[in-house]
Amino acid sequence: PSVPRHANRLINEKSPYLLQHAHNPVDWYPWGQEAFDKAKKENKLIFLSVGYSTCHWCHVMEEESFKNQEIGEIMNKNYVCIKVDREERPDVDKVYMTFVQATSGGGGWPMSVWLTPDLKPFAGGTYFPPEDGVHRVGFRTVLLRIAEQWKENKDALLENSQKILEALLHMSEVRVQGQESPPPSKEVMATCFQQLSNSYDEDYGGFSKSPKFPTPVNLNFLFTYWALHRTTPEGAQALQMALHTLKMMAHGGIHDHVGQGFHRYSTDQHWHVPHFEKMLYDQGQLAAAYSRAFQISGDRFFADVVQDILLYVSRDLSDQAGGFYSAEDADSYPTAASGEKREGAFCVWAAEEIRALLPDPVEGAAEGTTLGDIFMHHYGVKETGNVSPMQDPHQELKGKNVLIVRYSPELTAAQFGLEPGRLGALLREGRQRLSAARAQRPRPHLDTKMLAAWNGLMISGFAQAGVALGEQDYVSRAARAAAFLRRHLFDPASGRLLRSCYRGEDDSVEQSAVPIQGFLEDYVFVIQALFDLYEASLEQGWLEWALQLQHMQDKLFWDPKGFAYFSSGVDDPSLLLRLKNDQDGAEPAANSVTVTNLLRAACYSGHTEWVEKAGQILAAFSERLQKIPIALPEMARATAVFHHTLKQVVICGDPKGDDTKEMLRCVHSVFSPNKVLMLADGDSGGFLYRQLPFLASLERKDGKATAYLCSNFACSLPVTSPQELRGMLCP
């Protein structure tokens, strides 16, 4: 170890993913001018490899190819090699992924793309094995063949790359086609509901057979659909679909029963065997979705899941300065002595391990019953392991168990002759002991990069949970994270957001030499977070910042010709395309969320041009919303919010008064997708009174906290009782 290892240029980067490749024999460059200049000067092709730190196949390709001396030499001799962390540069990733999907019919990571010296793609794929196999050509062969083509047919290759670029430009354009009005909300909502119910899994919940992703965007659509159709059979069905899916996920192996939080997705239909990485954006969106489920159903089960997610994030993904880390990896060393990492090693159990940890006889249960017997029965643990070989192609989980709740508490209690009331405490004791044993295992790699967009999603999760569960601590945690963003991911001089910052050596927060400017999604998710945080805390400073950022977003990303926002700014000459994402996937598309943001911004500011912009976005995506709204469930949901116009719920009162607090509790206890809450505290010099002159005319009736329901700045009669207010919010 005393011999310094060979290091390439990535050693100077801050991204944990790039640093993982700093000792490869490949002469990697980060994305940037130095690499582009070298390619032009030496007239060399560029090999671009894009991945992220929790990507399993990225690790595999690195082990097999990028650490291979001989392959490294072929790469260095023929190419300028560039490595990109897609979480740092979603813009670069999206441009070339659009190409890979269009030309190979599929996409994913690691993404491998060959570019001309002027950055135009002409060949690409995802994972390549190092050597030729029966069905696939190997990475080495591809590298040599493409280098040969460049030598022999340079002109044809350049011409071809130009054609490809033109086709991509044409294909990826989202713009208003002639008609400039938003699509009819009723039809969009009905079609989206129909498409979701057609793909719904009645037994296990979710919207595909396998793999199954949590996709909170689908659940949020269903909650809104229910809220607008409460009395119809379809409305009831929408709610049932959402709640059943959330219940089955919480019982499944995708939920970490011992260490809390949710893994990224399930490889099977039953939510049982997951890919074990944990992503911040899932925790944030799921905390919000489970909070809504609790708000609507009143079932404590959902509140417990919210607390479980937020415990995990507070403990394992939180920086001491207040920000949130990006992800935890799936692969780890099974023991401190292991030579190679295995997927899920940190999270899975052999039956004998559990027996040894839980040997205690249980009083009052059938003769000879141990705590281990009860725990193993309830969580589906089998002596030979409970993972089917189909779910485990690399035999990494052989003989191991992924915990999944197999029985209701009543059934498990009955099985062992226990009183049902005792089971909860026994299972909790079992989980705590497993948790202590797990703490002795080597932990998976933690990606300590902090991204503005994902921090925004997590702030919304904490703020909404604080409101729904009445937990002030969660609201305070959200405010700490927002203050962190303001301090570390915002440049007050330019008024712009930054994309990322990093945990440094001594736990300080660091920035890269050339900070990455924020993308559309950073603005959109942070603005959404600030609105959620205002509603939870009623601190007007967050509103003021949100509106400033909305103006900046308009300036940097709006497309005045085709409408809607571009994903990236205009100031990066290395980007071949400015794209608009048209899919709500694991994360919602920025244009989808921004529709609701704009409507909220208009309510807090009186700027009606923001309502107009919201309508123009819906018009730009109109065709897709009418044909396949299931691809844009968050935007479909926003069509309804647009159509029903937001209701301003104004509470006039002293923020410290009990009567005001009671009115606020009433507002917070109701799920209403088209309400915007504001507190008129009587301070006529404050930000809201300056923005909205009509607030000055609203007064407290008989000196009591008074609520008004306003729409388009015209208000209802005042009400002073929470019961009346509840009646107005749930017509």
Automatic annotation (TrEMBL):
Spermatogenesis-associated protein 20-like TRX domain segment(s): 8-168
InterPro entries: 6-hairpin_glycosidase_sf (IPR008928), 6hp_glycosidase-like_sf (IPR012341), Ssp411 (IPR024705), Ssp411-like_TRX (IPR004879), Thioredoxin-like_sf (IPR036249)
Highest taxon of source: Eukaryota
Pfam families: Thioredox_DsbH (PF03190)
Biological processes per GO annotation: carbohydrate metabolic process
Coiled coil, from the record: none
The protein's name: SPT20 protein
